[in-house]
Amino acid sequence: MEDRTDLSRLLAGDAAAEDLARSLSTARARELTPRLLRRLHELEPGTPAYSRLRSVVITCNLSLVRALLRRFATSQVPREDLMQVGVVGLIKAVDRFDPLRGMQFSTFAVPTIEGEIKRHLRDTTWHAHVPRGVQENHLRVQRTREGLAARLGRSPDLTELTEATGLTPAEIREADTAAQARTSGSLEPGADESTLGLVRRLGDSDPELEKCEALIALKPALARLDDRERTILELRFGAELTQKQIGRHLGISQMHVSRILNRILDQLRPALLPTN
């Protein structure tokens, strides 16, 4: 009796029917959905009766969207936004579903809803251009990593991720690197950040760049040195040998090495001085 009463009230498609649809348990909504869809299939699309019953079917299956959102719990997109996108997917599933094919509605609807959410995440949450395939790999790796971590009680290693996702280690590393394109934020620290903030973590001038500039400037002057001068220069500043060790290596006195070094430096110094 209760089954027929609930079904009759839902089929009425009025405001009370929508209230009842919202109050149904997930199991009860899943039980009644096939009958509602069969009736919807019999109605003429675009008629008031069709629109009212369509709205009831969608309301009955909102729990399906909420369940799928748990797979995207780590997304930085607000849950309310994802819920709206998921409902769009649910509506598409209801409109495309054919109950005469014998398929369960949830089996048909889940990929449609999930695809709509993935498409939204792919198109709206990347702050730099990332190829579509890499974006999809990133989402697959993220979900797989979370599932394995829950099952193993620890973070999975690269081999385990490779086996579970079917991706190569290079593809997994690429997907993890791509995740950096999904976040952006203010350079100033927020209320929940340490006093260092993001500003303090920005890169500073790299002293190695100055070395590169110096080497480029010295290149013509170095080319003018003879073989022995270049050897002494390399032993002193490359191998960091003392003048005495260099003299022993070349069979000359330490004083002679010192004179050669001074002459070399006198030749090289003008190349590093700024020109007016």
From TrEMBL:
<dbReference type="InterPro" id="IPR014284">
    <property type="entry name" value="RNA_pol_sigma-70_dom"/>
</dbReference>
<keyword id="KW-0805">Transcription regulation</keyword>
<dbReference type="InterPro" id="IPR013325">
    <property type="entry name" value="RNA_pol_sigma_r2"/>
</dbReference>
<keyword id="KW-0238">DNA-binding</keyword>
<dbReference type="Pfam" id="PF04539">
    <property type="entry name" value="Sigma70_r3"/>
</dbReference>
<dbReference type="InterPro" id="IPR007624">
    <property type="entry name" value="RNA_pol_sigma70_r3"/>
</dbReference>
<dbReference type="InterPro" id="IPR000943">
    <property type="entry name" value="RNA_pol_sigma70"/>
</dbReference>
<keyword id="KW-0804">Transcription</keyword>
<dbReference type="InterPro" id="IPR007627">
    <property type="entry name" value="RNA_pol_sigma70_r2"/>
</dbReference>
<dbReference type="InterPro" id="IPR013324">
    <property type="entry name" value="RNA_pol_sigma_r3/r4-like"/>
</dbReference>
<dbReference type="InterPro" id="IPR007630">
    <property type="entry name" value="RNA_pol_sigma70_r4"/>
</dbReference>
<keyword id="KW-0731">Sigma factor</keyword>
<dbReference type="InterPro" id="IPR014322">
    <property type="entry name" value="RNA_pol_sigma-B/F/G"/>
</dbReference>
<feature type="domain" description="RNA polymerase sigma-70">
    <location>
        <begin position="81"/>
        <end position="94"/>
    </location>
</feature>
<dbReference type="Pfam" id="PF04545">
    <property type="entry name" value="Sigma70_r4"/>
</dbReference>
<protein>
    <submittedName>
        <fullName>SigB/SigF/SigG family RNA polymerase sigma factor</fullName>
    </submittedName>
</protein>
<dbReference type="Pfam" id="PF04542">
    <property type="entry name" value="Sigma70_r2"/>
</dbReference>
